[in-house]
Amino acid sequence: MIRSLLLLLVVLVQSLPAAARLPDEPTAKPPRDLQQIRDSGELRVLINQTRNTYSSVRGKPVGIENLRLEAFLAFLNQPRGGSTRSVSLKVIPLPKTRLLEAMQRGEGDLLVAGEVLEVPAQSSLVASQPIVRQVPLVFVTRQGQRRYKSIEQLAGRMVVLPYGSAAWPAIHRLNQQLRDLKQAPLMIKWAAPTLGPEDVLEMVAAGIYRLAVVELPVAERWAKVLPGLRIDRHLELERSGSLNWLMQADAPDLLASVNYFLRNYSPPKSADNAFRSAYRNQYKVHDPLTASAQRRLEKVRPVLQKYAAEQQFDWLLLAAIAYKESSLNPAARSPNGAIGLMQITPVAARAVGMSDFHSLDDNVQTSAKYLARIRRNFFSSPQMDERERQAFILAGYNLGPQRVQNLRTEARRQGLNPDQWFFQVERVAAEKFGLHTVTYVNSLNKYYQAFVEQRDFLEPPVKLLTSADQ
């Protein structure tokens, strides 16, 4: 009887559609040493997907690891006698939290995080010689904020950590010390996965976040283009990790080549020129939660809520657009003909059948309809994460939805995730069109995040019905 039931169960499972079955575990690929890499003609590099680590704008390298990796590739391709096959670079950007797992599965030959990444004791990965030894973890804040003399004075304060930050163990140890001193521990806020360390630093410089902990090399680099950022070097949290490249222990020749290269490599003095040029004059976010901004938002809140609800959007998304487009000013006009709170153009209005978009209600209604039209016609796939869908809609709002679809096609061709805007499709956008649309979406994402974190204060409490009201 039991055997018959088991056989029946096997038949039923096999008859299920593929989508209903449990996914198979990915098969780990065997590690490749230098000769196998040369034979294949391709060096697969898993990189931290942040803009700080590896990125380019219109062909110019702006990531901290771009030039180093390109120099290493040139080193591998140096003539050594015989007919050695040249090697090309295949960059695979992933979230920092997924890099070690992907490397263990053999998806890359080299792991380049651009930040401190601790390797578990039982891992099969080995680290190169340090690029930077004992990287300090430091507190950063906005220029003009109170200066604390010691870390102990930060007791009870809120500190933001970028997603996947190496600072968490150090914060945990500090909090234990504070408890032993009968002081309040630091409160931790993890930044959203759509925010890289560079985004957190921009939000700190704007005053949206008051305090964050990042690695000193990252803070120093972005302080060059974020004049509002202050690095409190004397508030050093810890020096517990080094900046390395990682590879499999079963690739000794690759390890030897990497170590030889790193010992002899010095970045050119002009290494950050393209980075400074690309980011110095980009739009910088402001604090959308100042007292005056909140007063302006409260005046237009009912209209934003009404038309957001009609089109099934979060009203705070419309609020973020309104802040970015007009600083929440319904009377705003731009030289290019955009009008009102949402800076609507006649072309956008005609696309959704709105002939009049000058009044506050009509202006917000037109914007909500136009966003909904982009979502319905271009980004309605159920496979898409909602935060990513929102980013694609905003990119389409700024660049044009068909252009964004073309970017997704190119991203797929390059091996990137076409359903992920942040750190994936945006790479193609930056390369093809520059940073304008990337910065536009990122700015709105920061404003939306700031609003969402204060939703309880921005939305009036729901009035509960009493017996007298009924």
> Tally of extended strands?
12
Outline type: globular
**Main sheet specs:** 5 strands, mixed
Strand content: 5-15%
If you compute it from the alpha carbons, what radius of gyration comes out, rounded to the nearest whole angstrom?
26 Å
CATH architectural arrangement of the largest domain: Orthogonal Bundle
Strand order of the largest sheet: 4-1-5-12-6
Would you tell me the structural class of the helices and strands?
Answer: alpha/beta
| Count of helix runs | 18
The span between the termini is 62 Å
CATH class descriptor of the largest domain: Mainly Alpha
How would you describe this structure to a colleague?
This protein is globular. Residues 1-24 have low confidence and may be disordered. Helix 10 crosses helix 11 (315-326). The chain has 18 helices and twelve strands. It has 470 residues and is α/β, with parallel strands linked by helices. The strands form four sheets. A five-stranded mixed β-sheet has the order 4-1-5-12-6. It folds into three domains: 34-131 and 244-278, 3-Layer(aba) Sandwich (D-Maltodextrin-Binding Protein, domain 2); 134-241, 3-Layer(aba) Sandwich (D-Maltodextrin-Binding Protein, domain 2); 291-458, Lysozyme. Residues 304-413 form the Transglycosylase SLT domain. Residues 1-20 form the signal peptide. It comes from Pseudomonas pohangensis.
